[in-house]
Amino acid sequence: MPRPKTLPNEDVLDAALGIMRKVGPEGLTFAALSAACGLSASTLVQRFETKSGLIQAALLHAWDRLDRLTAELAGSMPKTPAGAVALLVGLSGDYGGIESYADDLLILREDLRDPHLRARGAAWRDVLSAALEERFGGVPAAPAGIGLMMAAQWQGALLWWSFDPCVPVTDFVEERLERFVATFAAEREAHSS
């Protein structure tokens, strides 16, 4: 079967991410990507120049996808604390099972090594925190910075789930975040009594 002459970058970068999830960033080579997407290795080198350029492009593509999902969920969830929980549960569904989550942590290492990718992570943190904060606007007991606190609670819940993944990640995250939100309801009741 002849090789395709062209393939959109999005499809190529999806294939690159798939390779990184299976064998880690070190296993992403132009030869492996060529076998996965059908373009010649020389065509891929022309597009991405170096392996580090390819890894960065693939991870920027993943950040773009996460930005779109975050915006979609933020636009569709109610501006209530329950909406904040639903937003984070929606983001958690993308992790899949424990193997997928563990593989994504290996890939996160690459994000942390690259200043440009770290900046993308910081920008996403700010967008996500603001979207969560907005959902607590009418909650009198919610402290300033609740969005970042909730995002940190979510990330912690994901990590703790990973040590004992006996329930679906979305169920675990939802239960933990509902408890987190309940502390503010209890605080509000205590102050009104």
Description:
This protein is an all-alpha fold and 193 residues long. 24% of the residues are buried. 76% of the residues lie in helices and 0% in strands. The chain has 9 helices and no strands. It has 2 domains: 1-49, Orthogonal Bundle (Arc Repressor Mutant, subunit A), CATH 1.10.10; 63-192, Orthogonal Bundle (Tetracycline Repressor, domain 2). α1 (9-23) packs across α6 (98-113). The termini are far apart. The mean pLDDT is 90. Residues 6-66 form the HTH tetR-type domain. Pfam families: TetR_N. Keywords: DNA-binding. This is TetR family transcriptional regulator. One of its GO terms (molecular function) is DNA binding.
Give a short overview:
Keywords: DNA-binding. This protein is mainly alpha-helical and 193 residues long.
Task: Give the overall silhouette.
Answer: elongated
Overall structural class, as computed from helix and strand content, comes to mainly alpha
Order of helices and strands: HHHHHHHHH
Q: Detail the poorly predicted runs.
A: none
Overall number of strands = 0
What is the CA–CA distance across the termini?
75 Å
What Rg, in angstroms, do the CA atoms define? 20 Å
CATH third-level topology of the largest domain: Tetracycline Repressor, domain 2
Query: What is the name of the CATH class of the largest domain?
Result: Mainly Alpha
Biggest β-sheet, characterized? Answer: none
Treating each run of at least 4 consecutive H or I residues as one helix, how many helices? 9
CATH architecture of the largest domain: Orthogonal Bundle
Relevant CATH superfamily of the largest domain: Tetracycline Repressor, domain 2
How many domains? The number is 2
Q: Considering DSSP H and I runs of 4 or more, what fraction of the residues is helical?
A: over 70%
The average pLDDT value, as a whole number, equals 90
Q: What proportion strand?
A: under 5%
GO molecular function, one term: DNA binding
Protein name: TetR family transcriptional regulator
Pfam families: TetR_N
Keywords: DNA-binding
